[in-house]
């Protein structure tokens, strides 16, 4: 048993993280936590000094678990913590979530990716990840705020890309789209609120 744990500790940790985040996402969905910005904000702030940690974990969760509305969490970050801190918190937590996606996929293979995202979506990229130009494609996809980033991080875990290269691309290319999303949510909601008041 001890040998099994030692040999598979990485996979066990990855599975545990994925299951925990899935359970948290389900509980949040059932409780209406993700129904609106206000409901999510009230939930997080109810933890007082622990609000930052709850936000951080929720942001990682929205990357790891498909279906959790990331826009609400991004907006909460910049509105509650301010544009600069909100951006930094969003950036670090989303990068961590992206790395977790890569590691989960690396541990459990394409069966998990297909089960979570479906055969059709996976089929669009299964040949792409074998191409020599995939690293450049992935870097551009992460840099431009239009690609399905979270899904691509799972898919990239099935490629030959090294962990070191993946982390480098994520940390170098994520700031621009996260900054764009964060500022868009911050100023967009600010304009809406000013018009309503």
Question: Could you please describe the fold and organization of this structure?
Answer:
By secondary structure, the chain is an all-alpha fold. Helices cover about 80% and strands about 0% of the residues. The protein has 11 helices and no strands.
Question: Which helices and strands appear, and what pairs or packs with what?
Answer:
Blueprint: H1 2-31, H2 37-45, H3 51-64, H4 70-81, H5 83-108, H6 110-117, H7 119-123, H8 134-143, H9 149-156, H10 163-173, H11 175-196
Helix pairs in contact: 1-3, 1-5, 3-4, 3-5, 4-5, 4-11, 5-9, 5-10, 5-11, 8-10
Overall number of strands: 0
What does the main sheet amount to?
none
Q: Give the quaternary arrangement of the chains.
A: single chain
Note the total helix count. Answer: 11
Q: Structural class, please?
A: mainly alpha
DSSP helix fraction:
over 70%
Q: What is the overall pLDDT average?
A: 78
Give the helices and strands as they follow along the chain.
HHHHHHHHHHH
Radius of gyration: 18 Å
Low-pLDDT parts are: 190-197
What general form does the structure show? globular
Distance between the amino and carboxyl termini: 63 Å
Please state roughly what percent of the residues sit in beta strands, choosing from under 5%, 5-15%, 15-25%, 25-35%, 35-45% or over 45%: under 5%
